[in-house]
What does this fold into?
Amino acid sequence: MRNREAGVAGPELVMQTDTLRVVVLPALGGKIASLRWLPGNVELLQAPLAPYAPRTMEMGFEESDASGIDECLPSVAACAVKTPRGVARVPDHGDFWRLEWQAEQAGSEIRMAATGVSLPLRLERRLQLAGETLSIAYRVRNVGDAAVDYAWSAHPLFAVERGDRVVLPPSVEQVRVEGSAGRLGKKGAEHPWPRSQANGGAVIDLSVAGRIEDGVGDKLFAASPVEGWAAVERRNLGLTVTVQFDPKQAPWLGLWLCYGGWPEGNARRQQCVAIEPCTAPADSLEQAVAGGWARSLAPGQSDQWRMRIAVSRVS
It folds into this structure.
């Protein structure tokens, strides 16, 4: 199957256990569209803000459904990067959420792949569902004839309600602002985790989810916790959703705390938390290259890493 810009949602691939149901849309950027907790019939991912629709290489992420789990590669932010063949323009949130993926399913395993457009990178994923855990194995390979820089970020948008909590291990004591809709200051500002001060001086607990009426949208970075996990505690549901990763493979952790602060100008806005293991503490590949955080692949070379999303009951 030849990659092309994603059109309508297309056929679903479904994996299910007694507790979890996972729905994948290969034609829509390989999106994991649903992660449903079956005992309570609860959707754990951000619902679509707009109907699924064709995606182009030019559109911004805010023009899409902005839901579920996508992959950000080779950059989160749109940028221009120098390559041996000239300047490459990487679109918003990268290439891969826009593309139709090749996909094959065998029971509780889905193998998927797509080849990028802005840079010659091929991304492969192997999804496996067992019990209450979704495991994702990644492999990115340079399919070009010259070295390629890249930055990768997971992009799981977890639905939250007011009072839910973002739980980070004890090793995370500080976060840095990548972008904020007003309350945390400019890019580069540093804040203690979890209790800090907003711009106006009010003491805030960054770990507590707000209301969609709050208009909050904060993108933060921290060094990856050595413990190798971060979680969202759904207090009213009695559930914890934990993202597990190897901090050596993903040495940075992005946090997207959005309580009605994005997309600006849209009637429907996100109410979610994204826990984003990533390879660079910057959304832009251009900045990652300048800061020495970008990863480079020689022709034919590949990198591999893993991530798991586990759902568990809590009292």
DSSP finds one helix and 25 strands in the chain. The helical segments are 285-291. The radius of gyration is 18 Å.
